[in-house]
Amino acid sequence: AHPSRGWDILMHSMDGEREPREFLATEFNENHPRFSPDGHWVAYDSDETGQREVYVKPYADSRASVRVSTEGGYFPVWAPSGRELFYRDGPRMMAVAIATEPALSAGPPRLLFEGSYLSRYDISPDGERFLMIREPKTEPITQLNVVFNWFAELNRLVPVD
Known about the structure:
Distance between the termini: 64 Å
Shape: elongated
Mean pLDDT: 84
Strand content: 35-45%
Number of strands: 13
């Protein structure tokens, strides 16, 4: 996180000088970048509208990004085909069709399913299944039993000769 801007997206080269360079650095928080399968596009989420939304931006140049979510979204993941993008919106798993020719465009988001899952997830290489972790169910604690002198109680219940 940058002290005055928040979270930015940086790139590191795999060869040569490995100093990071800014890919996306604004006064807003940009998070969770994911390259498209062909490497030409980057999906990410940002809070520039006042809530987290999902965007797609070309990797090779600085053209403006396209917002693909409409009511909030985060943790984008590309379908293996590169023609669809998935993202979370609270308990909802959303999908949006992506076209890159003749220009980048996104279809309307559609609900795939809802559930209590942790935000991080992935998709199978064939694009047919999601790998998700179910959020643990937490029941509120309504009773707490405290046992004093439990060792003496254990000896009384199970005497050892």
